């Protein structure tokens, strides 16, 4: 058999094998979908809170350190309670003064606002916020259970 034909058949067989494996992994799981609140598209509503630079100017580094520690502890508490599914800072300064974001596991802007107001840095005016409804994968909260497996050191 000619090398070109042999190579083509090998590539085709590998591609078909990959496609079959991928198809086998994509079986619908009704129990999981229901437990996550998924609609027929595997999606659900969330609320995004964008943290912005607040009006408070805190020069005392000790006080600011305490507020940031409280901020991080509050994020952990809300995550443990299943209220936050994503949280993190923006890595670049921007003209909108966006500092970070939360994706809350609620479609209620009012509930998300109650939760963000538990943040000591928000309470102190270090951060302000904007709230937006958002539609995303219902499986989004599942990544949190694996986060500790990839975390070597806490912030």
Automatic annotation (TrEMBL):
Pfam families to which the protein is assigned, alphabetical: YCII
Keywords, in A-Z order: Signal
Entry similarity comment: Belongs to the YciI family.
Signal peptide: 1-19
Residue stretches making up the YCII-related domain: 62-134
Protein name, entry field: YCII-related domain-containing protein
Superkingdom of the source species: Bacteria
């Amino acid at each position: 058999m000619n090398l070109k034909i042999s190579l083509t058949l090998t590539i085709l067989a590998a591609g078909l094998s990959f496609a079959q494996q991928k198809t086998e992994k994509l079986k619908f799981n009704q129990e999981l979908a229901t437990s996550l609140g998924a609609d027929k598209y595997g999606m659900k509503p969330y609320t995004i809170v964008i943290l912005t630079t607040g009006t408070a100017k805190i020069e005392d580094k000790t006080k600011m350190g305490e507020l940031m520690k409280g901020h991080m502890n509050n994020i952990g508490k809300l995550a443990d309670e299943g209220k936050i599914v994503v949280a993190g800072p923006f890595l670049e300064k921007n003209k909108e003064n966006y500092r970070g974001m939360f994706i809350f596991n609620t479609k209620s802007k009012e509930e998300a606002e109650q939760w963000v107001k538990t943040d000591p840095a928000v309470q102190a005016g270090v951060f302000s916020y904007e709230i937006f409804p958002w539609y995303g994968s219902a499986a989004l909260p599942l990544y949190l259970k694996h986060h500790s497996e990839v975390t070597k050191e806490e912030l």
